[in-house]
Amino acid sequence: MLFPELIDIGINLAHKSYDRDRAEVITRARGAGIVAMIVTGSTLADSARALELCRQWPGLLRATAGVHPHHATGFQAADCAELAGLYADPMTAAAGECGLDYYRNYSPPEEQRRAFALQLKLAVQHELPVFLHQREAHADFMAMLREHPGLLTRAVLHCFTGDAAELDDCLEAGLSIGVTGWICDERRGQGLRQAVGRIPEDRLMLETDGPYLLPRSIQPKPADRRNEPMYLPVILEAVAAARGQAATHVAAVTTANARRFFGLRL
Q1: pLDDT band at 192 (very low <50, low <70, confident <90, very high)
Q2: Number of other residues whose CB lies within 10 A of the CB of residue 167
Q3: 1 in a domain, yes or no?
Q4: In whole angstroms, what is the distance from residue 210 CA to residue 213 CA?
Q5: In angstroms, rounded to a whole number, what is the distance separating the alpha carbons of residues 74 and 214?
Q6: What is the number of structural domains in the chain?
Q7: 184: domain range?
Q8: In a domain, 84, yes or no
């Protein structure tokens, strides 16, 4: 089967679940038409590891550098110098993953907001696009983003799982949207399937968020239930069907969007 060219804008390739077969994961991704991947950084150490992977596969990988809201408590103002050093690496394509997550609250909301504010300010200073996370924190998240209006059109909200009203708010502000295998979930993804057609073509991107969010439509499912980039075409097909567009068209526009947004020359 000939796959269209695709870019996975959110893959946690530094995750320990890939340690045993990372090279094979990358080989399978290439076989499925994946021409570039953005490796997500979720802590300072994880971001540094993502950059190490980029140096191993420079023709395929770029990274984000940031601190996920789950880890906000451990990120202090004194750590901004280290994060700025990661930003300066030519393999860093975006700041993040950063944002707010009130669903889990692994870090208290006030700590999340503090860490998010630090990272937004730093991203503006370094003129980087931003890779964002938000769950059950829409109002605070958007209020903080709007304090940096120059970032709004240079930000992608990855793994969108909100409702249509939240999507419209994000789109009105100028955000791009990353869609994962959530759209393949017959239980939780119905709202996203109904709303994904509202996303303008020039602000839609695709991602697996592996090893998480294995598309539930995959049959048979892998025994370990681990998601990986070779399943991105499954997400493409679901997005195309929900938008009433040809998969080849959605592949072309989302790949072009990812290249432009992250400044890729891959």
Answers
A1: very high
A2: 20
A3: no
A4: 7
A5: 29
A6: 1
A7: 6-262
A8: yes
Please report the pLDDT score of residue 207 as a whole number.
Answer: 98
Is residue 60 within 8 Å of residue 36, measured between CB atoms?
yes
In a 10 Å sphere around its CB, with 0-12 CB exposed, 13-18 middle and 19+ buried, how is residue 102 labelled? middle
Helix (H, G, I), strand (E, B), or coil: what is residue 199?
Answer: coil
What's the average model confidence in pLDDT over 153-177? 97
pLDDT of amino acid 1: 60
Model confidence band, residue 71 (pLDDT cutoffs 50, 70, 90):
very high
Q: Could you list the beta-strand ranges (E) of the chain.
A: 6-11, 34-39, 61-65, 92-101, 130-135, 155-157, 176-179, 204-206
Task: Please say if the pLDDT value at position 2 is more than 80.
Answer: no
The position carrying tokens 């493409």 is 236
Provide the residue type at 239 as one letter: V
Q: Hey, what's the torsion of the CAs at 43, 44, 50, 52, to 10 degrees?
A: -160
